[in-house]
Design a protein that fits this description.
The chain is 49% helix and 16% strand. The two termini are 23 Å apart. The chain has 222 residues and is α/β, with parallel strands linked by helices. The radius of gyration is 19 Å and the shape is globular. The protein has a five-stranded parallel sheet with strand order 2-3-1-4-8, with helices on both faces. Strands 6-5-7 form a three-stranded antiparallel sheet. The protein is built from ten helices and eight strands.
Length: 222
Amino acid sequence: MDIILLGPPGAGKGTQALAIEQQAGLVHISSGDLFRAAIKQGTPLGQQAQAYMNRGALVPDSLVIDMVIERVLQPDCADGVLFDGFPRTEAQAAALDAALAEHGRQVDMALFLDVPGNVLLKRMAGRQVCGLCGAMHNIYFFPSKRAGICDTCGSRLIQRSDDNIDTARNRLDVYFAQTLPLISYYRSQSKLHEIDGLQPIEQVTEAMLVALGVLNVLEHAA
């Protein structure tokens, strides 16, 4: 079962991807991680991607697809994967469909983590992380008991320079312009499942597992 995980920045895709990977037995494929690994390892595809990046050029969709398919065809992905961060555009989605079809596979479902824009802005602009233990806080939703101090270890909390309203708004603008058409693309194929991302984390995970048909299996095993 090959699944697409969709959602804007700040929707919580990273948290949910980890939960789905662990509980549904799908291999998590992040396009960003693929690029970094291929470049670090100096693979032929990684060298090609690095050449484009060195010139300040965008890596062509065809090369991205090749890297993704190369990973999908590895033995540990035989039972299915969870695509995170790819595809980003409708053109990439169509190219991915064609490439998977060549190997007898297809996108079975697209899970869309839906969160309103005003909430996303606060999630992104309010993030704070502990410089020592890595604990996360948010000045709007779960602030630390003492301003700027980690509840877990008492160290100082850090807010990244790009975690501000203007940067967050720009990132969302790019997302809605480029990636939101994917919602219509997968809806037209009757593959889209919309998940309310305002629910508590555990309920979001549960809703995704229900959509995947995994939850009953877990309950029976328990």
